[in-house]
Specification:
Blueprint: E1 7-8, E2 11-12, H1 22-29, E3 52-68, E4 71-86, H2 97-100, E5 103-121, E6 124-141, H3 148-151, E7 169-172, E8 180-182, E9 190-207, E10 210-227, E11 236-239, H4 254-262, E12 268-273, E13 278-294, E14 299-309, E15 322-325, E16 330-333, E17 351-363, E18 366-376, E19 392-397, E20 433-435, E21 445-448, E22 456-468, E23 472-491, H5 508-511, E24 517-540, E25 543-557, E26 584-586, E27 593-602, H6 615-621, E28 625-633, E29 656-657, E30 679-680, E31 700-705
Length: 706
């Protein structure tokens, strides 16, 4: 392998102190020594305390004014400010506690609203409301404003920009889930600002046995987020256990990672380039008409129609959206050249949502109700088209796991002593089109679906309500809904077969891209059906009781696969091999049976009660009540992962299921819930046979009493 074993004074695997990096020594000097029993252990050898401080200030002001008999004006202003401090476990050197998430934060919220009501006549009234809500959240690493990295000898780390100030992150890839052992989380710092502006105008008109309502609702959404968390705005040095080991060695351990740090041999070096913030602008418009018609004393109809309009989002200005186009293997920059600011996403004008309800009194004690409605939802995620170069980072990696990090063109090594090369900034061509070549082929991308259609749900119900003797009311209902065009992240670059590796990714033959490509979104469906029963006892004699039971089933496309959450809080599908509908099944919140029993009983003591209405007993025992809520629920679906190496990027692996799934109902250690012997690890390069969400886990029993 051409490598020589470390030795010092004849002792193998001992580093000569002269070879230990002075920067590594300076960093270690900032870290407290181990302080727990067994302190020579490699992990969990230090214990310390951190402080979390939260100060909140808030107030509300409200004014009501009756300008005349027919005019009423009101206004409101609310303010809240929270200051937070989470101290790091290693002082200004940060440390791994709380996921290296230590620092200071301020969250300030204010909102104001005014409303005006006017009565034109006994049959016509109007209401107008306008409001603004503003939210600003700022979080910083504890050592913000310092040149901690430059001071210990790392050149080019602290660039004068406050967002690059502080200590670099030192990450050991096989320790602490690769969080910073020294330094601060890549999520710090951030500045988030959201402003929502809303205007509503509603009208109500009664005529004969009709009540007409109509109105308009306009909303403006502004969202800005300055946060760079792909690498780290202060920079990150990643050390693995291979750079200081021999290929094929059986003694390659965590200690090799520490050795790599001591001799300044990172396998990967990266930094975010904090030059731009993610910005997001949107407008929403809604109008509606509605008629409540009392047809007869027994029959009431509710009929309405709502129109919803969601124009495509835009950024704050040109160059602030970037969308990957897989058909041309290029990045389209919004507002540059002939590229539209909204990326050319299609505008839909036909989002009509009808609503219909009926109530019929069969007898004085029996009512039948039924309804149907369609309701739309906006684009589900304000993390939008923020591909490169909106968010930029520089990464320098070794040629393989055994090689130290180096610059891609010159081949010069990148280490703590060499520091960071000057930030490499992207140049946007005048036509706003950036071909994806070179290092860009190794990144992950988001594709905003330019034909995205607003999802909607079709909901319906049929209910029977019956009054029974003894102040009892029984209600039975069938409730269902159907989700249509539900937004689902689809990994365009997931492998479509097992055992094909990175080169078998779907887009690799035509584009060469090796990262995930998240299409946001494809439309999928869901279904919910339920029998709901409720048995109420109206309050009488201080006693109130409600008994409720639901038998339900919910099916849909499960989105938790492949680890694909590219610029998104929404996960991707799990399976792209074989039948696409393998992703369809019971959703994670599916519970077949739910039973809830609640009781409230006012004790019969005290003033106005039949017992101890006065005297000492009344003072001590009067005014008490007892309440209980008992909840019984069957379990949610179990998720099965694991098995042989699938070698199909973007897909989840599952074990093989050999025979029938058997529930043993065991609880606790050595008492399994199900028979595990029917599961086995399948062969490598083959997708397992077990479904992921077909079998339910333990249920829930919960009793609250007071």
């Amino acid at each position: 392998s051409g490598r020589s074993q470390f030795s010092f004074n004849g002792r193998p695997n001992v580093i000569d102190p002269a070879r230990i990096s002075p920067i590594a020594k300076a960093i270690l000097a900032k870290v407290p020594l181990p302080n727990v029993p067994g302190e020579l252990a490699a992990t969990n050898n230090f214990q310390g305390t951190t402080k979390f401080i939260k100060d909140t200030t808030s107030f509300d002001v409200k004014i009501d004014h009756n300008a005349s008999q027919n005019d009423r004006v009101s206004g409101r202003f609310s303010f809240s400010n929270q200051d937070l401090i989470q101290t790091p476990i290693f002082g200004l050197a940060g440390g791994p506690s709380n996921g290296a998430f230590s620092g200071t934060g301020t969250q300030r919220i204010w909102d104001t609203a005014v409303s005006y009501n006017h009565i034109f006549s006994s049959t016509l009234i109007t209401e107008a409301r306008a409001g603004v809500n503003h939210y600003r959240n700022v979080a910083n690493n504890t050592d913000r404003g310092t040149n901690a990295s430059n001071d210990i000898g790392i050149p080019g780390a602290n660039l004068g920009d406050p967002n690059t100030s502080g200590l670099v992150c030192i990450s050991f890839t096989n320790y602490n889930n690769s969080d910073c052992l020294v330094g601060y989380s890549a999520s710090l710092p951030w500045v988030r600002g959201e402003t929502n502006i809303n205007f509503v105008n509603n009208w109500t008109k009664t005529r004969s046995n009709h009540t007409f309502k109509w109105g308009v609702d306009v909303r403006r959404v502004r969202d800005d987020l300055a946060q760079w968390q792909s690498q780290n705005p202060r920079g990150v040095f990643r050390f693995n256990n291979s750079v200081t080991s021999k290929p094929g060695s059986q003694t390659n351990t965590q200690v090799n990672t520490v050795a790599g740090f001591l001799v300044d041999g990172p396998n990967s070096v990266g930094r975010d380039v904090p030059i731009a913030a993610k910005t997001f602008r949107g407008t929403e418009l809604f109008t509606y008409v509605q008629d409540k018609w009392q047809v007869t004393q027994k029959l009431t109809l509710d009929v309405g129609l709502r129109w919803e309009f969601y124009p495509p989002f835009t950024p704050k200005g040109p160059g602030r959206f970037s969308n990957y186009d897989p058909t041309t293997n290029s990045l389209v920059i919004a507002g540059i050249g002939s590229n539209p600011l909204d990326l050319g996403r299609k505008t839909h004008y036909k989002d009509f949502a009808p609503r219909f309800g009926i109530a019929y009194r069969l007898t004085e004690k029996t009512v039948v109700r039924a309804g149907f409605a369609i309701s739309y939802s906006p684009y589900p995620d304000n993390d939008y088209a923020f591909d490169f170069p909106v968010l930029q980072n520089n990464v320098f990696s070794g040629l393989n796991d055994f090689s130290p990090a180096r610059q891609p063109i010159s081949g010069q090594l990148v280490s703590m002593s060499s520091g960071f090369p000057p930030p490499i900034l992207a140049t946007i061509p005048s036509n706003g089109i950036i071909p994806v070549t070179g290092n860009l082929l190794n990144q992950a991308y988001t594709v905003v679906n330019l034909n995205f259609r607003e999802p909607y749900a079709e909901s319906w119900n049929l209910a029977l309500q019956r009054s029974l003797p003894g102040k009892l009311v029984l209600e039975m209902a069938y409730v269902g809904n159907h989700g249509v065009a539900l937004p689902t992240v689809f990994n365009l670059n997931a492998a479509r077969a097992a055992g094909v590796g990175q080169r078998g990714r779907a887009l690799f033959p035509t584009t060469g891209i090796t990262g995930d490509v998240a299409l946001k979104h494809v439309g999928t469906s869901s279904n919910y059906h339920a029998l709901q029963m409720k048995f109420d006892r109206k309050i009488s004699g201080g006693f109130l009781m409600t008994t409720a039971y639901t038998y339900s089933k919910v099916l849909g496309f499960k989105t938790d696969g492949g680890g694909v959450t590219i610029n998104s809080t929404v996960g991707a599908l799990a399976f792209y091999i074989g039948d696409f509908r393998r992703n369809y099944g019971p959703l994670e919140y599916d519970r077949r049976h739910t039973f809830v029993q609640s009781l409230i009983y006012e004790l019969p003591f005290g003033k106005g009660k039949p017992l101890l209405a006065s005297g000492v007993g009344s003072k001590f025992l009067g005014g008490w009540q007892v309440s209980t809520i008992l909840t019984l629920m069957t379990g949610t679906p179990l998720i099965f992962d694991g098995g042989g190496a699938l070698n199909a990027p973007g897909n989840r692996q599952v074990p093989n299921l050999n025979g029938s799934f058997t529930t043993l109902h065991g609880i606790g250690a050595n008492h399994p819930w199900f028979d595990t012997t029917v599961f086995s690890k399948g062969p490598d390069n083959a997708l397992g046979t077990a479904p992921r969400l077909a079998f339910s886990g333990p249920g829930l029993v919960n009793l609250d009493a007071s």
